[in-house]
From TrEMBL:
Signal peptide: 1-25
Protein name: Serine protease
UniProt keyword annotation of Lipid metabolism present: no
Matching CDD domains: Tryp_SPc
Taxonomic source organism: Amycolatopsis rubida
Biological process annotations from GO: proteolysis
Keyword presence, Metal-binding: no
InterPro entries linked: Peptidase_S1 (IPR050430), Peptidase_S1_PA (IPR009003), Peptidase_S1_PA_chymotrypsin (IPR043504), Peptidase_S1A (IPR001314), Trypsin_dom (IPR001254), TRYPSIN_SER (IPR033116)
Family as reported in the entry's similarity comment: Belongs to the peptidase S1 family.
SMART domains per UniProt: Tryp_SPc
Entry keywords, A to Z: Disulfide bond, Hydrolase, Protease, Signal
Location of the Peptidase S1 domain: 29-250
Length: 252
């Protein structure tokens, strides 16, 4: 099912062997943390006509935002807006821009079938630094550390975050992705996460960026729950769609 994702915080028990041969368990909290728009000014979220946040996105030009196609298809264009420059959803910081046009990849059917990418054109401008688009697939091998950003749920079935959050996850190899999701296509998808889970994106984060530095390598697409062992998060592979995104964002 589509993942309108948020970062989860999982609590795990680590067994510690003491020098006296006694053993004890110590709790360790893993998962996301608050993020700063000073570092990631291109992170945005999408709202409906009631101002309710339902997906994320990423600024790719002064007038355009990349997101997931299943996000763009959720709300009619006339009821869709982009909120930029606002870390805390309860504040009035930043700008709200109505969407004037939306391009969805023509091959998109469902997130599980790939091509889950869209570009939203806004009325007015977005006065924040855009993110770059990954173009060279060989530059981001398995094991590369990436950062996923969003305002979605803090746990599977939990509340959505009021603040922008971030989590660090490694890109997984194609074999791992295919084992977790038999429908996986290395052409249009990538996956990221730890084998034991615990750090992930969750509902409400779909459409948000997975970045290496300030370059978007993935767009949050879907997954099986949030942070489950053996179930990394699934993302649209930006290197496969960078030319399409650039063309519809007015970059080429």
């Amino acid at each position: 099912m589509p993942r309108r994702f948020a970062f989860i915080v999982a609590v795990v028990l680590s067994v510690i062997s003491l020098s006296t041969s006694a053993a004890g368990a110590a709790p360790a909290v893993i998962g996301g943390e608050k993020a700063s728009l000073a570092q990631h000014p291109y992170a945005v979220y999408l709202v409906d006509s009631h101002g309710t946040q339902f997906c994320g996105g990423v600024i790719v030009s002064r007038t355009a935002v990349a997101t997931a196609a299943h996000c763009a298809a959720t709300v009619p264009i006339g009821e869709l807006s982009v909120v930029a420059g606002r870390e805390d959803k309860r504040s009035q910081d930043g700008v709200v821009r109505a969407v004037s046009a939306a391009w969805q990849h023509p091959d998109f059917r469902t997130p599980q079938q790939g091509s889950d990418v869209a570009v939203l054109t806004v009325r007015g401008s977005l006065p924040y630094r855009p993110a770059g688009l990954a173009r060279d697939p060989n530059r981001y091998p398995a094991g590369t550390t990436a950062t996923v950003l969003g305002w979605g749920r803090l746990a599977d079935g939990g509340d959505r975050s009021d603040y922008l959050r971030q989590a660090t996850v490694p890109l997984a190899d194609d074999s791992t992705c295919h084992t977790a999701y038999p429908e996986y296509s290395a052409t249009s998808m990538l996956c990221a996460g730890y084998p034991n889970g615990g750090i992930d994106a969750c509902k409400g984060d779909s459409g948000g960026p997975l970045v290496v530095g300030d370059t978007v390598v993935g767009i949050v697409s879907y997954g099986d729950g949030c942070g489950k062992p053996g179930k990394p998060g699934m993302y649209t592979r930006v290197t496969s769609f960078a030319d399409d995104i650039a063309a519809h964002a007015g970059l080429s």
